[in-house]
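Worked Example 4.2. Consider the chain below.
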Amino acid sequence: MKISLLNERITFEKNTTIVDENANHRNVWEEYFSCHTYAGSSSYQQKEQQAAGVTVTDSGLVFTVRYCSELAVLDTTHYRVRFHGDPYNIVSVDMMNYQHKSIKVTCEKERRDGDVKSDS
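Applying the procedure from the previous section yields the following structure tokens:
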């Protein structure tokens, strides 16, 4: 892996449960780990989907990071990625044949209410 390709900063966030003063449980995303990455879009292409008469753009990215013990526990349900201020849901985590050199994380941009285009 060429270190010069790792020219972007990425933050991994972990889903945790907090309890407020009224004993209510809430899920929140807390910053877990930050490192440098190579961001690209190889096989996971940008696509548009038609959902209930509304066109939705799904933009996906593939992040390649150096292997470290903090990222060895990554999964698709408890972690997400923040890249350039936008949240990305993790679709898959590839440990690259468990050689402990790099990890490839396939993500799709998290949808918000403002990300929907109307067909009118």
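The mean pLDDT is 82. The longest strand covers residues 25-40. Compare this with Example 4.1 before moving on.
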